């Protein structure tokens, strides 16, 4: 088995992009889901409510902005360039006041990224929004039912990384084709990006073998599998048209339904020596421990 692809999502619930290598930090990939969009009330706004947020493609920059260096050095993923179909690209950085945002199980303090970022994203979302940055991801614990007291996560829904496999997607798309045939519909295979994984594994011999994994090593980094990933309506949003459909939830409900939820992929927690980071690269070997 090998690591087929690595993806990072700098702003929660916007588009991600593939990278050939990435640093692994205790709370996830470096720069992954460190920014969050909030509405006028301060509540987190996601593509579940505003699918057009997926048209935003954020790319991490260094700490240099407009010829100056922020905070005397490089901000850890704090500087972004936002691109989208509605406006010219915009480079933004956290420079404003702090505010509290409410996430599943926890509330965390984030730093505002300024009026220009707010206006740019508001134009895309079609309503007033703000952009915030989590300067210290070490302040947010994972769900204690599935992790250790010291485990941390950035602004992802639940856990530091999400893993999927190409074998499982191939089986799911076979099922989707069968469902379409039964209903007289045109088969439309689901691309992996609908599931928003951080790491995709190739060479797995059995679809959904990852359901049984407890620990694995990717390259030189070891991970614990905390739990399977239950899937939400965001997977039904077409990343090209931003319209919601029935798949893959319709077919997952037929074949992968447990405890009132549907499942695809597994969540990972890095097992790192305290104070150290790891590194992943495309093509790294994968070993189930």
Automatic annotation (TrEMBL):
Annotated signal peptide = none
Renumbered residue ranges of the record's region Disordered: 1-25
Concerning Pfam families, the annotation shows: MOSC, MOSC_N
* MOSC domain sequence ranges: 136-289
- Cite a single GO MF annotation: pyridoxal phosphate binding
Superkingdom of this entry's organism?
Bacteria
Output the InterPro entries linked to this UniProt entry. Answer: MoCF_Sase_C, MOCOS_middle, Pyrv_Knase-like_insert_dom_sf
Q: Return the PANTHER family for the record.
A: MITOCHONDRIAL AMIDOXIME REDUCING COMPONENT 1, MOLYBDOPTERIN COFACTOR SULFURASE MOSC
- The protein's name is Uncharacterized protein YcbX
- In its UniProt entry, the species of origin is given as Nonomuraea rubra
């Amino acid at each position: 088995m090998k690591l087929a692809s690595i993806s990072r999502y700098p702003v929660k619930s916007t588009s991600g992009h593939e990278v050939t290598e990435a640093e692994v930090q205790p709370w996830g990939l470096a720069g992954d889901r460190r920014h969050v969009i909030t509405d006028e009330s301060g509540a987190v706004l996601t593509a579940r409510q505003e699918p057009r947020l997926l048209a935003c493609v954020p790319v991490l920059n260094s700490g240099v902005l407009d010829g100056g260096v922020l905070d005397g050095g490089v901000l850890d993923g704090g500087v972004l360039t936002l691109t989208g179909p509605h406006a010219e690209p915009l480079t933004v950085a956290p420079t404003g006041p702090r505010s509290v945002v409410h996430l599943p199980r926890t509330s965390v303090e984030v730093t505002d990224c300024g009026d220009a970022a707010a206006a740019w994203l508001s134009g895309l979302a079609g309503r007033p929004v703000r952009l915030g940055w989590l300067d210290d991801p070490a302040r947010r614990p994972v769900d204690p039912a599935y992790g250790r007291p010291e485990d941390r996560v950035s602004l992802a829904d639940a856990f530091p990384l999400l893993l999927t496999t190409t074998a499982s997607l191939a089986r799911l798309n076979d099922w989707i084709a069968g469902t379409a045939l039964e209903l007289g519909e045109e088969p439309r295979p689901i691309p992996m990006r609908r599931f928003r994984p951080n790491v995709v594994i190739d060479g797995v011999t059995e679809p959904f073998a990852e359901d049984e994994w407890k620990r694995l090593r990717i390259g030189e980094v070891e991970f614990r599998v905390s739990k399977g990933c239950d899937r939400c309506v965001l997977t039904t949003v077409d990343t090209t048209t931003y319209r919601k459909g029935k798949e893959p939830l319709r077919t997952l409900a037929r074949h992968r339904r447990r405890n009132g939820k549907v499942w695809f992929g597994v969540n990972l927690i890095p097992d790192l020596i305290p104070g150290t980071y790891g590194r992943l690269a495309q093509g790294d070997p994968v070993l189930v421990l």
